[in-house]
Write a structure and sequence with these properties.
heterodimer, A: mainly beta, four-stranded antiparallel sheet, B: mainly beta, two-stranded antiparallel sheet
Chain lengths: 174, 116
Amino acid sequence: MQLINTVTVGSGGTSQISLTSIPNTFTDLVILLSARSNQSGGALGMSMRFNTDAGNNYIVRRLFNDGATITNNNLSGTQAQCASIPASSATASTFGNIRIFIPNYAGSSIKQAQIESSTENAATFNNNMISITHWTQTAAITSVQLFPDAGLYEQNTSVSIYGITNGSGGATVS
Amino acid sequence: MLLNNNEDSPFAYNYITMRTSGSAATSSSTTSAGKFQVDVAGITNTQRIVSTIQLFDYAQTDKHKSLLWRFDNANSEAVATAGRWAQTTAVSSIQLRAGSSTWAAGSSFALYGVSS
């Protein structure tokens, strides 16, 4: 797994993190986030787009729990609402953890992304989620946009994107 | 999925699964099974599964082998499984089967090792 880029949000926050110029030389991508929003409330959703595509091209199936209730959604829209992060009412210094796995990102098939996110906040505003995102486009992914559904990413939110290259031990069905 | 080609006896596979179709969430558990088995309902023959399996301490001979398994298709279901193979033998091979069917052309599989 090779680091491609890391972005850390500075003072004042930012409404979006864009990971650009992703080379097509890897097999898969992994994105790891440590994120928090300044939006009011305890937790809120976070979304993703590929290649700045804001068309109605995203499908998300997700399952999440807040420690008391399990909820599931089937969403479609102009962005993939695929994760949850802490917001301003969450305990200070609490950041959510998110892993995004995008296989065959440079291929010509429809793209899917597998995601887990977790926010633990001592019994309030907890949120653990699994989701699968379907981007109904076949273009190679060259950039990924990540943004909270409202407000800004807070300072010290960090994102790293890694490329994975298949070794000789893998197999492809012919 | 089989570990070390162990199918059926000694029926050492135990796992719990949660899944969502987006409109319904379900949970299930299986004990003393002959294999790890997950499925996604409603997938068509032109769609693909995204699956990742994390197998922990695969070479340890003093532990049962445990795993976390995601098995998803955005058009049908998101599925997460936690499993245990009740054997202490080091894992030296993994068999992945497409049920009673075959893997479609273009299906790809990659195995990675993680070192501490």
